[in-house]
User: Which sequence fits this backbone?
């Protein structure tokens, strides 16, 4: 699991660095939620993989590539086809690194989990896909649950993957709930001969713009941020789906993000990495969450709060 996370971080770093503008070590560390020393180690690995990593006079980094040659780039459909092929085969071919480099440099495919590179996860996804198509129940063997802090086998009826194949949405008869199960936490899959028994209860709720599925025990947070240009660019690069929720303020070089999020953690990490570039406007519930995690921030008394009040650093 630890190596899985490391590879994911390297892939995210490649995706960030291949798009201008060049980025500082500090901003990369904030986005990846890692130390600056760790980011330097990842950069060394990226150079060993053969990427043309460039550092400018301001100590900002970018991967040099042929970004202008759109004719030779993968289209979204082509990139998705490559994704499906890798999911079904996912072996340790010597050409893997070369293919990865081309996919990340020439396409807009955002791989947010390392599901394409891990043969074990590829087999789990393939088994779940077959179960969905054949309408068969499955047992998620040795599932690591964060909410209950235990490891157990879970009988479910799989419904649909999230777009990035990080989660499977499935109906669980024991709890009588539709839940999202993280692929990385599944040890193995047992496809049963039993056909779906509760298909009328199957429901799929779309994950939020940050890729997090709904939480049955937590209402979504209303997030409203004012972003400077740098924060706006970095946010769109890391979370492309957020773009449709951002609007530029009239006559200003600032942008407003208004979005509901199922999990505030990715927003918190982003703000922490760019404290001078982001201003939290609302909602009050989200500001309270931030107050509990960022001690340097000041928040007004609830009686003094009104929509549009600003969440400032002390």
Assistant:
């Amino acid at each position: 699991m630890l190596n899985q996370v490391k590879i994911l971080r390297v892939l995210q770093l490649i995706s960030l660095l291949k798009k201008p503008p060049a980025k500082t070590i500090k901003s990369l560390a904030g986005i990846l939620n890692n130390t600056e020393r760790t980011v330097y180690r990842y950069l060394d690995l990226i150079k060993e993989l053969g990427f043309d990593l460039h550092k400018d006079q301001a100590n900002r980094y970018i991967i040099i590539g042929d970004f202008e040659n759109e004719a030779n780039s993968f289209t979204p459909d082509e990139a998705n086809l490559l994704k499906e092929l890798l999911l079904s085969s996912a072996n340790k071919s010597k050409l893997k690194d070369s293919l990865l480099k081309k996919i990340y440099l020439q396409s807009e495919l955002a791989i947010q989990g390392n599901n394409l590179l891990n043969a074990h996860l590829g087999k789990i996804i393939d088994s779940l896909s077959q179960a969905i198509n054949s309408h068969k129940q499955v047992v998620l063997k040795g599932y690591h649950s964060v909410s209950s802090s235990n490891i157990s086998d879970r009988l479910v009826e799989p419904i649909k993957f999230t777009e990035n194949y990080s989660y499977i949405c499935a109906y669980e008869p024991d709890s009588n709930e539709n839940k999202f199960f993280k692929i990385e936490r599944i040890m193995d899959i047992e496809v049963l001969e039993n056909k779906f028994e509760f298909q009328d209860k199957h429901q799929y709720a779309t994950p939020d713009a940050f890729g997090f599925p709904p939480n049955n025990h937590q209402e979504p947070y209303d997030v409203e941020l004012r972003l400077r240009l740098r924060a706006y660019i970095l946010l769109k690069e890391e979370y492309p789906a957020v773009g449709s929720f951002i609007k530029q303020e009239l006559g200003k070089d600032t942008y407003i993000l208004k979005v509901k999020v199922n999990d505030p953690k990715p927003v918190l990490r982003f703000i922490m990495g760019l404290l001078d570039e982001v201003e939290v406007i609302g909602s009050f519930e989200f500001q309270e969450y931030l107050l509990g995690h960022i001690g340097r921030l000041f928040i007004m008394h609830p009686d003094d709060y009104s929509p549009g009040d600003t969440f400032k650093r002390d």
About this structure: Residues 221-313 form one domain. The CA atoms of residues 50 and 268 lie 33 Å apart. The longest strand covers residues 150-161. Residues 66-71, 87-94, 105-117, 296-314 have pLDDT under 50 and may be disordered.
